[in-house]
## 1
Amino acid sequence: MRKKIAAANWKMNCTFQQGEKLIDEILEANIELKDHQHAIFAVPYPYLLMARSEVEEERNYDVAAQNCYHKKSGAYTGEVSAEMIHSLGVRYCVIGHSERREYFQETNEILMEKVNLCLENYIIPIFCCGEPLNIREAGTQNEYVGKQLKDSLFHLSADKIKDIIIAYEPIWAIGTGKTATSAQAQEMHHFLRSVITEKYGEPVANEISILYGGSVKANNASELFACPDVDGGLVGGASLVSTDFIEIIKALP
Ligand code: 13P
């Protein structure tokens, strides 16, 4: 069975103390994750070690960085490399979130470099893709999102790509309260899986978890996660409220 994942993306929110309390409250719910279920906290860099030690004893709870730099090392003041993240014992990294694509001009080519550096450093990329509203309105979202995947991931061997997590996050649904319908999510996830099938074959495509992101809430998570090609969620706002994120983890099939 494919991994089903509830991933929290805190973005630039929470003080250290608030973040620690948030994780504590979520873990206190004592949700026992099954073998195929995972909960991941993508926290700001300065909180990675704290978060990692919080989840250390917990089965299938993990931590992710929200970004890494696209160069190996060197004179890039203020940046954080994949190797540094790995050296903290962190196993996941969000790559290519739409906010980074938009505000930091991250291109598909730069994201390819980041994916490579993550894999070289034993870090599983949570690779984000998704179309803006004008593309959705023009009806060309499949071509747009398919190209994001092809440009940044399709240089990988089957053996490498099968471990990557993909997060489809339509930009018009992020932070807007306007969730994609489960039919829209399923349609895109199915399309992405078919694009991967074309290139790598069905067994590989069937192994890759594809998460949905964009206004996932406690009250819509079950319906979204029940779609056959939706393997969980990447959650922003609702991951900052412990009671909400607890419900979202519980909604994992
Ligand atoms: P919201 O859940 O706040 O819409 O954010 C989604 C997101 O961007 C997760 O990465």
Note: The chain has twelve helices and eight strands.
## 2
Amino acid sequence: MSKTLQAIRGMNDILPGQTPIWRYLENTFAQLLSSYGYHEIRLPILEFTELFARGIGEGTDVVDKEMYTFRDRNDESLTLRPEGTAGCVRAVLEHGLAGGGQVQKLWYAGPMFRYEKPQKGRYRQFHQIGVEVFNLPGPDIDAELIGLTARLWKQLGFGESVRLELNSLGSPEARANYRAALVAYLERHVDQLDEDSQRRLTTNPLRILDSKVATTQAVLAQAPLLQDYLDDESRVHFDGLRARLDAMGIAYVVNPKLVRGLDYYGRTVFEWVTDRLGAQGTVCAGGRYDGLVSQFGGKPTPGVGFAMGIERLVLLLETLQLVPATLEASPHAFICAFGDAAELAAAGLAERLRDALPGLRLLVNAGGGSFKSQFKKADKSGARFALILGGDELGARVVGCKPLRDDGEQQSIAWDALGDYLAPWVASVDDKNEGRHE
Ligand code: HAM
């Protein structure tokens, strides 16, 4: 196939073998969020470029190197969203959802786009489930957000495979003071820094703390620490968060070098990290952005949130062999029909059964075929019963009902009695084939 008729690099099809895992994750999380009182918001995938340039910040990798930006037919500069926070803040402001100090607890899910170098766990179209909360300034909500992610990991069975890293970035003034001290220190060692870090010294010096390059790391070992520049209010906020996490029994490590790649953060930042996925080990990340709403022209409105990468969570579920065995519910019955007249009768019978038994999972053979091939398809579908309709059954207005999951004998059941016969299976609460996501 020519290259231009293939999927774009880093943009994946999610095939039927995978979608049940995605649905399991999405449904598990949607239920959890609902149980904590969060509501879904659905947002456009395209926004004006300026929203991201101003919200995420010029000088960040996302804005400078990774955005899919183009001009539309009206010559407007638009960008495929690289993340969900900026668009969510825009929508909240545009619709007055956080006006008058109103609390909003929102979540969203969907594709995000970044022109990054694709590798395991890192894609150009990837999917996030994100949460954003408005008008709650205290550490109690930061703790709730972290607590609900911890509960999701518990429900998925991650155990000790993910760990929580925390930091506080302090107030804008504290950060500016720290930034000046860091730049002054790093300028004295500029020739020991890698090229990327030298460039960041003017564009985004805090990001140098993230550098993985050994020589830069060595310089950073003696660098001033953000913690020593924290303002009192941010320190109290951070202590409050830590005390709550302790009370909730949630373990964490304070990582003084955790700064995050997006400019809007202040005070709390956190990441959930795993060692089981190689280089792309951050499965969930977020923090507080109390200045973002006012930066977009709104009244000062505290905000805090996080987003998790669905591809990485799917990979982690698979790596840890935690994908539940029965995610897709098997059919209750599969109708095999032989000959034109039986096929017509099967079509009518199937409709009457579906009317009579809401919840019935019924497949009807399509495309004809021998007794052997249809029976094989019935078995392969995982159905509990094969319902057989041949010339003899048609004349007697019965079906041959053959159990496929146990050794029971085939029985002849009148068409009118079939609904009653299948009803207990459809209603059964401990139907072993019931998928967990249903
Ligand atoms: P982020 O750290 O850029 O934060 O992304 C959040 C998560 O999305 C990452 O931890 C990772 O799991 C996943 N992710 C990011 N880039 C990729 C990629 N190229 N391929 C696969 N997965 C990826 C944000 O986006 C913020 N909006 C989070 C937030 C919400 N902060 C406050 N509210």
Note: The pocket of histidyl-adenosine monophosphate is lined by residues 83-85, 114, 116, 121-123, 126, 128, 130, 132, 261-262, 282-287, 305-309, 311-312 (CB under 6 Å).
